[in-house]
Amino acid sequence: MGYLEKYKGKKADFQARHEAQKKKSEEGGGYRSSIFDGKKIPDDIGFWSPKEGEHLIDLICWEATELFPDDEIQDAIRQAKIDNPTSPRDSKLWPIVFAVDLWTHKRIGVAKDDFICQVHMFRTKDPMCEHLNANPGLPKPEWNALRAYHQYIYYIWDHTTPQEEQKGLQIWRVPSFFFQEKVDEIATIPQGGGVIPYSSPDMEGKTIAFKIKGSRDQIEYLGHRFIDRKRDLPEYLLEKACKYPLESLLVLHPEYKTMFESLYGEPYVEGAEGEHKARPVTSAANVDNAPSPAGGDETRTTTTRKAEGVGTSEPSPPWDKCYRGRAFGVDTDKFAECLRCPGWDDCFDAGKRISQPSQPSQPSQPAPTTSQPPAPAPEPEKPKRLLGRRK
Ligand SMILES: [Zn+2]
Predict the structure, then answer these.
(1) Poorest-confidence range of 86-100, 182-196, 200-214, 344-358?
(2) Which residues surround ligand 1, an ion (CB under 5 A)?
């Protein structure tokens, strides 16, 4: 039998290999640490990477699990178990969600690893946040390369083309600024009228249209609007999302050692937490030149947030105070709204002046000896979650 004849019999298998490779590439090439556990993602669920142009999607909800990283959802699950101890998932109190709200350190180290921020999410510790706390005077590009970014992860059903629609459930990872924040705006009914239940799986829910313009550093997500549904979402998609809850596909708690070695590019020695001041192997180039393959590149918002004139009720920069009531130069990046703040540059620069004062110390204060005292570890504000829950 000739080779091509033999190939015919293996064609389906070979096609599956292509699909698997594509997924691996989308998820970061298989060599880097990701916020996803690739082994847990079913073969027929891929990652959605929308291109420039118009898009039309539904968000697919699922029943949350005990893994879901949100206190409110965990409380609801506890209540549901009290409400119906024999079959808690049948309890009317069991929460349904449509997104995982995450803070993520991106493209850390030479391998460009991604990690879920343990400080913002779980109030424990991670070497990236420790490094930032220990080095408050870092130049802006280095700071940006290490800080955590706010993202959302969804299950979506794409109607942009029949081919995309055919794919069914896909995972979408996107900065909050590009999608969730815009959708929150249009979901709010004026004069205290409540919120449009856009993530409902029935006809009350909405299909969401939006447009992507530009690419890379100049990308914009525009024109978000709701389109009425003509029918309920199909059962098979909802059942599939419930079978593979998104939170169960994530590496929610990466090992400290793994994060440390990725950040500093050297072996972790027990007890080195929080004391390591060496220059991390991450460089500003990681931020500027290598957008995330999964489309989760929140650094792009630095350019677009100004272009879109976010926060028009506030005065134009330069700012010398925080118009959102936070501590100027101190609370930089501690709140979700910092990400799209037009005064971010000024706030960051003020923070540097605070940490590296040009004035000599007051005579009454003891002069610093060898190095600056470590800055007090800031208490990060737990980001507010924006999750759909049906009763
Ligand atoms: Zn962190």
Answers:
(1) 344-358
(2) 117, 119, 126, 128-129, 148
Q: Which domains, and CATH codes, for the chain?
A: 23-61+98-303 (3.90.198.10), 317-355 (no CATH)
Listing DSSP states for 51-115 in one string gives -SEEEEEEE--EE--TT-S-HHHHHHHHHHHHH-SSSGGGSTTS-EES-EEEEEEEEETTTTEEE
- The rounded distance, in Å, linking the Cα atoms of 299 and 291 is 8
Looking at this protein, which amino acid is placed at residue 335? F
Phi, psi of 188 (to 5 degrees): -80, 120
The Å distance, Cα 78 to ligand 1 centre, comes to 28
Looking at per-residue confidence, does 155 or 347 come out higher? Answer: 155
Measured in angstroms, how far is the CA atom of residue 222 from the centroid of ligand 1? 30
Residues in the chain, overall count: 391
- Which is nearest to 296 in space by CA: 348, 245, 383, 221? 221
> What six digits make up the tokens of 170?
């896909």
Distance 119 CA to ligand 1 centre (A): 5
Q: What are phi and psi of 194, to 5 degrees?
A: 95, -155
Comparing CA positions, the residue from 271, 300, 332, 280 lying closest to residue 115 is 280
Question: Which residues does 238 contact at the CB level (< 8 Å), separation at least 6?
Answer: 60, 61, 62, 201
d(CA 70, CA 247): 10
| Cα–Cα distance measured from residue 266 to residue 281, given in angstroms and rounded to the nearest whole number | 9
pLDDT digits (tens, 9 = 90+) for 356-384: 654 443 433 333 333 333 344 444 443 33
The answer to whether 354 and 329 are in contact (CB under 8 A) is yes
